[in-house]
Design a protein that fits this description.
70% helix, mainly alpha
Length: 381
Amino acid sequence: MDFDFTWLLWGLPLAFALGWGASRLDLRQWRMESRQAPKAYFRGLNHLLNEQQDQAIDAFIEAVQGDPDTAELHFALGNLFRRRGDYDRAVRVHEHLLSRADLSSKDRDRAQHALAMDFLKAGLLDRAEAALNKLQGSAFEGEALLALLGIYERSRDWPRAKEIAQRLETAEQGSFAPRLAHYLCEQAEIAQRNGDLENALPLLEEAVLRAPQLARGWMGISALKAQAGNTSEAFDALLQLNRHAPQYLPLVAAQLAAVARQCGRQAEAVALLQASHDRAPSVDVTEALAALSTDTTAARTRYLNHLEREPSLVITARWLAGETLSDPLAQVPVQRALDQASGPLKRYRCAACGFEARQHFWQCPGCQAWDSYPARRVEEL
């Protein structure tokens, strides 16, 4: 049977026409999808600028579905999930990015850092630590070390925190001497609680060598010396504190007065405390001066001098304690009411976040900032 070339002549143009039509259809669909993806992206950006995170997330999900190979959209979506507190979905987005074989090394490090931040915000410190350790040698190493430092501080792993701080200081990321001194003081307090005074003192001595302006080290040395019965050396340590950090004298005013009485150096203590009071009146300093006064009249004069410079319900209650009311039966309940009312007024306030506490903290429980609590208590009526 002979082949009819007529069909070939008709078939070739028909096949070409069908192929051309299919390509045009694909091109039109691709153009439509490429238009939709940027529209979804800009719609998400608009929602984000208007602080409408839920709508922005929906728009970015639509954009990612239209163009799944765009890494930037994944980063934007993951960051939005994290900001909203949806950490599981943020982790899935960033883990999906890390699983892609075509991801550049720069974007891979970026995704690894974003994943570590997801774990950190979610409170999964062990997984965050593992993720951050993978960033060594990358462009995010400095940020990773700072995050690791925060993890070790929160878990109170002071030896490892010390190691990271030293690495940051070596990498010229700033001076970490005060933090290193705090870590040494924390270790010294642990040793002291365990009765290991022999190792506590060298740690405190290293702390004041690293950061002599840190009052905490001198306070610890003074307390250890006083505990050992070396009250004169304990007093000398507080003199060093006043020399390097005089603004912290109100914090140790009561300790200074007690040690001064024990070693017979009341006159030196009064001179230091009076100089501090002249600079800025303080409830703690006034109370310490009153405790060092030779008689009740002199102590009450100290209270009046304070009230002349600065109103204080706490000091008023102290002064009234030495007064005799016209009705003797009212003396006890009135004094009890004043003491109860003035007690909550004696607070320390964090300069970084405003967190208030009855006791002084070297690291704020609220914002984790170091040395953010002033030595002087605030009193607001």
